[in-house]
Specification:
With 417 residues, the chain is an alpha+beta fold. Among the domains are: 163 residues, Barwin-like endoglucanases (Beta Barrel), CATH 2.40.40.10; 74 residues, Alpha-Beta Plaits, CATH 3.30.70. The strands form 3 sheets. Strands 3-7-4-6-5-8 form a 6-stranded mixed β-barrel. A 4-stranded antiparallel beta sheet has the order 11-12-10-13, covered by helices on one side. A two-stranded antiparallel ribbon has the order 1-2. A hairpin with a 5-residue loop joins strand 5 and strand 6. The longest helix has 32 residues. The N terminus is likely disordered.
């Protein structure tokens, strides 16, 4: 009996301990059941993102939720660490099948419809680029890949997913090859949303936006040139001016005066004053040359051709020919310098000059900036484009866009020249 009692007395403490552990476990489970699992802060909040390139966020992304509540934080941000993009490798363009997701066409976002291009071949567009970072890191892209802000990727509204493009910052000449695997940006006046790494590489970060050229890359013909299209009309045929007299940045149109009036249609700012036309002086031959030859040379207005020399004045004739100014058709070659890109807002394109002039007058009275009418030939059809600009920066372009819409005019598209 004593042995049994002793054994029972020894078991009681262990039973009590087991009961306490069971109760504690139940309380812990109840506490966990009362809260939802939040996305890892390490991939969505500033300062806690690992700087290791290629790290995925490990987010349990519920893509069925609306965009406003899908992400762990409300505002986008970037990591605190200084990213060394020189250690990152650009993607190599290759032929890939179209993604099962993200290529629906047409599709609508915020009440606006977009048509996905049948292929990326030949696409070339200039406009404003933005970028996205920590808020979206680890979440799914439109084609259901994990967004990794430490890779060279981008979002585009109309290029097929996936596709490849070279993005060049027109303000500093830096460029990067990106793989496009997402849709966006749906902010007005933007043509591409770069990953954080791509933005750092070409200098769009830390400024936030940049003037860029986006040229799609055909893996079979990576060096093939593209055809520039107007911003906001990527799904439309190319609409750049193609008339041969037009310079790269067209000048305001000058209406030709009636025949016989002596006026000539030319780009605004071209030299037309008498002083500009007479700035070159005819060469005066030496006194020993034939006087009649000297008189004939002085009487010919510039530009002049070599004056025929008398039979006894071959040396003087050679001197005259070498000293005369070159003909206008063969100007001396000068180094090509890329001018700083400028932002314009295209308000409309009109076949009728009177309609274009009415819109231009309305904009001019509003005092939103310089207004010009640009004539261009598109697919054999003459149109007049009404533009406001150049504008100082992207913020100004966004503000003026709203002001133009406030006048009852269509919302303009951005043009970068």
């Amino acid at each position: 009996m004593s042995v049994v009692r002793r054994t029972a007395s020894l078991e009681r403490p262990w039973r009590r301990l087991a009961m306490l552990c069971l109760v504690a476990s139940l309380m812990l489970l109840a506490a966990c059941g009362g809260s939802k699992t939040k996305p890892s802060k390490g991939s969505t909040s500033r300062g806690n993102v690992s700087g290791a390139p290629g790290r995925r966020g490990g987010i349990n992304d519920d893509t069925s939720r609306p965009q406003a509540s899908r992400y762990g934080v409300d505002n986008d941000s970037v990591p605190n660490d200084n990213l060394d993009v020189s250690k990152l490798v650009e993607p190599t363009p290759r032929n890939e099948p179209r993604s099962l997701y993200g290529n629906k066409s047409p599709y609508s976002v915020l009440g606006k419809s977009y048509t996905v291009l049948p292929n990326a071949s030949g696409y070339d567009e200039r406009g404003i680029a933005s970028f996205y970072g920590s808020k979206f890191h680890g979440y799914k892209t439109s084609n259901f890949e994990d967004y990794d802000m430490y890779q060279f990727t981008a979002a585009h509204k109309t290029l097929p997913l996936p596709s490849y493009a070279r993005v060049t910052n027109l303000e500093n000449g830096k460029s990067v090859v990106v793989r496009i695997n997402d849709r966006g940006p749906f902010h007005e006046n933007r043509i591409i949303d770069l990953s954080y790494a791509a933005a750092v590489k070409i200098g769009v970060w830390p400024k936030g936006t940049g003037l860029v050229e986006v040229r799609a890359i055909d893996p079979d013909h990576p060096d093939a040139p593209g055809t520039l299209v107007s911003s906001g009309t990527a799904s439309s045929p190319p609409s750049r001016p193609v008339s041969s007299p037009a310079p790269p940045r067209p000048s305001p149109m000058v209406v030709t005066a009636p025949a016989g009036a002596g006026a000539v249609s030319r780009p605004a700012g071209a030299a037309t004053s008498p002083s500009a036309a007479s700035s070159r002086i005819a060469f005066q031959p030496p006194a020993s040359a034939n006087p009649s030859g000297a008189a004939s040379a002085a009487s010919v207005p510039p530009p002049m051709r070599p004056v025929p020399a008398p039979s006894t004045g071959d040396i003087a004739a050679a001197s005259i020919a070498s000293a005369l100014p070159p003909e206008p058709s063969a100007p001396p070659a000068v180094p090509t310098i890329n001018p700083k890109p400028k932002i314009y807002l295209q308000v409309g394109a009109f076949s009728d000059l009177a309609n274009a002039s009415r819109v231009a007058d309305q904009l001019d009275k509003a005092g939103l900036g310089p207004v010009s009418i640009i004539q261009a030939d598109i697919n054999g059809r003459s149109v007049r484009r009404v533009r406001v600009g150049p504008l100082a920066d992207v913020d100004t372009a966004d503000r003026v866009t709203d002001q133009i819409a406030g006048l009852g005019l269509p919302r303009p598209s951005v043009a970068v020249d």
